[in-house]
Amino acid sequence: EDQVTQSPEALRLQEGESSSLNCSYTVSGLRGLFWYRQDPGKGPEFLFTLYSAGEEKEKERLKATLTKKESFLHITAPKPEDSATYLCAVIPNTGRRALTFGSGTRLQVQP
Amino acid sequence: GAVVSQHPSRVICKSGTSVKIECRSLDFQATTMFWYRQFPKQSLMLMATSNEGSKATYEQGVEKDKFLINHASLTLSTLTVTSAHPEDSSFYICSALSGAALLYNEQFFGPGTRLTVL
Q: How far B17 CA sits from the closest chain A CA (Å)?
């Protein structure tokens, strides 16, 4: 059974204080690992897709990396507008196309 | 990116009534759509996979007769919650895969529908 575990559950940072969010996964062959941002009362917003170990992607203050067992979302010098829940999800290499989500990390960035 | 809309954004109904939620892909054709449910402070749980022109595939534990899914066109899927009860109150979110998908592609999510059953 595919499993995705995210840590920490919640994270409070000061503006400018860099940190990393972790996503550990167990999947029968990884087709893709996805990072989404979700604001309260809204649907997830796509951030990144990673396909193979060693891959990295960047977007503004965010950088996602992937190993064979986990992915990290690095947030550099965060701003209050980066406050949101960050979701990690995987698709296995079995033909199944639905996402299996982790429970998310609630990030709060204080000014 | 591709845009997915949902209607209504929120609905309040009495116990025992049925509620229909629409999910539309606005600028692309979606051969596959997914329906998720999200309880407060929890993650998204897949309910069913909907393919255009065929019956939906439901996840284990999801009642097919209670959550009716129709995917009649390449841009529209509907979820009908029949005989809704308070325990069905949740945030329902749809997502869509483009029909012109590459080998790997991301799902585009709608804004969600907040259902409250009194």
A: 24
